[in-house]
Amino acid sequence: MHARVNGTEHPLPHDSRRTLLDWLREDLGLTGTKKGCDHGQCGACTVLVDGRRINSCLSLAQLHDGDAIETIEAIGSADALAPLQRAFVAHDGFQCGYCTPGQICSATALMSELAEGWASAVTEDIAAAPVVTRAELQERMSGNLCRCGAYSNIIAALEEVIAAEGPLRIDAEASA
Amino acid sequence: MKAFTLDHAADAQDALDALGAGATAIAGGTNLVDLMKLQIAAPDRLVSIRRTGLDQIAPDGEGLRIGALVTNADCAADGRVRRDWPLLAQAILAGASPQLRNRATTGGNLCQRTRCGYFYDTTQACNKRAPGTGCGALGGFNRIHAVLGTSDACIATYPGDMAVALLALDAEVLTQGPDGERTIPVGQFHRQPGDDPSRDNTLLPGELITGVRLPAPSGGMQIYRKVRDRASYAFALVSVAADLAMEDGRIARCALAFGSLGTVPWRDRAVEQALVGETPSPALFDKAADVLLRDARGFGENDFKIVLARRALAATLAEATLSNPAKG
Ligand SMILES: Cc1cc2nc3c(=O)[nH]c(=O)nc-3n(C[C@H](O)[C@H](O)[C@H](O)COP(=O)(O)OP(=O)(O)OC[C@H]3O[C@@H](n4cnc5c(N)ncnc54)[C@H](O)[C@@H]3O)c2cc1C
Ligand code: SF4
Ligand code: FES
Ligand code: FES
């Protein structure tokens, strides 16, 4: 049983109890992904599995045979920051930084969910493609807690990236 | 976590064989792994049902059949669900977080266990977790607990959202077990605690949920209103699922289900009968709440739910009847 992590194939752990989070951090040394609560309640452990965000603390590693997993280490590096990372820096989207890898992985998947037209709990017309408003972004990032309370700056970072990269446009009026 | 073996079922039959041999199913794992970490659940054998092919959404007559392994995210993103059963999409999206919904499944969501704090604390008395030890919540911290369908043994709520929508939509749970297939109306899936709170639902040993069937869409106004302590990523204190149609200024048809109010997703036909044929008004909504809450009983900290349910019902009915003039 193998999983591809950040482009490299790795055998899955032998211990069935190993969570995806502990496997990434303890066995593969990918410590960018953080453990906040270990119970699905904070989002610090968010990684992408086949492009979708999940809480790695609540998933058993052995359930990921054949999956493509991406962690913060694949999204950008200190010398080659991804646009979202640059925007987080520009907008002070963090203080201590502990929740940040999870926030950025989450925001990365949020972009593709929006592009696929997924609705959220605050989408006005659930059958229609969502209009990007601040409320939409807040709701869609609600699975990532930030104990430093950098929320408004995180949303500002997202708005900048969405405005710059499209295809989606922020509805300024609806955001006001 | 206690040690366990983990097998991977290749199809439903494979899963049934493992369940028959005493294995516990794991789907998304978002509830089970959590409970295993705390040793509230300690199965020695798990079978993953993720790759059993039960992850499709398909038309079923005029209705829809949602496979047990369809993730909550995929179900809420489905164009047919969003157009014809928006209540279901709304309820799912009101629950958990995007990350959890990407992993959580239709079958697992139905089977999720209570969030009672005593159930989660293995040092406390809890008849659901450890039958016969008593109920810590009865005279303790019970703010999130039920006011309907309780017993002296347990007052915990079924905490989920999706099932509340399914109940209002007259959906059915499809299962396969040692004795063949069963179709269980959602209203008969969850169990009130009675004197055996350890069993949350009517699944039989060795039985697998294969999917959920939605009947033809009602075409009515569908609303899911969830009241909670924070705006997102929190369980409901009270929720209301409504599917309602107006005709000539009167309520022609309505289905109402309530979450986190009772020990199970709650539906009371007498409430609906009190509303059908009537002209919407605050007095009428109040009368409906009287019917809903006639046997409600608070346990101290959760007394507020009785008032909250009345207000949530009134707000939902006002929204559904005022913004529903199309057929009026
Ligand atoms: C922090 C947090 C917040 C949450 N908030 C909400 C919320 O607001 N609203 C809400 O509704 N939910 C909420 N949830 C719960 C979440 O929706 C459930 O954990 C999820 O739906 C369970 O699905 P799963 O596939 O992960 O189940 P699993 O954890 O894999 O399984 C749960 C149970 O179901 C059984 N099971 C699974 N599939 C089948 C099947 N096909 N046949 C028979 N038995 C089966 C398993 O054996 C197990 O006992 C929250 C969870 C967390 C961790
Ligand atoms: S309410 Fe139910 S789940 Fe909570 S302590 Fe009492 S018996 Fe246990
Ligand atoms: S560590 Fe996984 S959600 Fe908190
Ligand atoms: S930056 Fe400190 S928790 Fe978010």
Automatic annotation (TrEMBL), chain A:
Among Gene3D superfamilies, the record links this protein to: 3.10.20.30, [2Fe-2S]-binding domain
Which UniProt key words apply to this protein?
2Fe-2S, Iron, Iron-sulfur, Metal-binding, Oxidoreductase
Q: Which Pfam families does this UniProt record tie to the protein?
A: Fer2 (PF00111), Fer2_2 (PF01799)
Name the domain of life this protein comes from: Bacteria
What are the protein's GO molecular function terms? 2 iron, 2 sulfur cluster binding; metal ion binding; oxidoreductase activity, acting on the aldehyde or oxo group of donors
Keyword Oxidoreductase in the entry? The reply is yes
Which SUPFAM superfamilies does this entry report, sorted A to Z?
Answer: 2Fe-2S ferredoxin-like, CO dehydrogenase ISP C-domain like
Residues covered by the 2Fe-2S ferredoxin-type domain: 1-75
Q: Which residues cross the membrane?
A: none
Q: Does the keyword Ribosomal protein apply?
A: no
From the Swiss-Prot or TrEMBL record, give the protein name: 2Fe-2S iron-sulfur cluster binding domain-containing protein
Q: Say which species the protein is native to.
A: Novosphingobium olei
Automatic annotation (TrEMBL), chain B:
| Highest taxon above the source species | Bacteria
Which residues are in coiled coils?
A: none
A Pfam family? CO_deh_flav_C
Q: Which ranges carry the FAD-binding PCMH-type domain?
A: 1-219
Q: What is this protein called?
A: Xanthine dehydrogenase family protein subunit M
Keywords on this record? FAD, Flavoprotein
SUPFAM superfamilies this protein is in?
CO dehydrogenase flavoprotein C-terminal domain-like, FAD-binding/transporter-associated domain-like
Which PANTHER family does the record match to this protein?
ALDEHYDE OXIDOREDUCTASE FAD-BINDING SUBUNIT PAOB, XANTHINE DEHYDROGENASE SUBUNIT C-RELATED
Origin species:
Novosphingobium olei
Q: Name one GO molecular function term.
A: FAD binding
Give the InterPro entries listed for this entry. Answer: CO_DH_flav_C, CO_DH_flav_C_dom_sf, Diverse_Substr_Oxidored, FAD-bd_PCMH, FAD-bd_PCMH-like_sf, FAD-bd_PCMH_sub1, FAD-bd_PCMH_sub2, Mopterin_DH_FAD-bd
Q: Does the keyword Flavoprotein apply?
A: yes
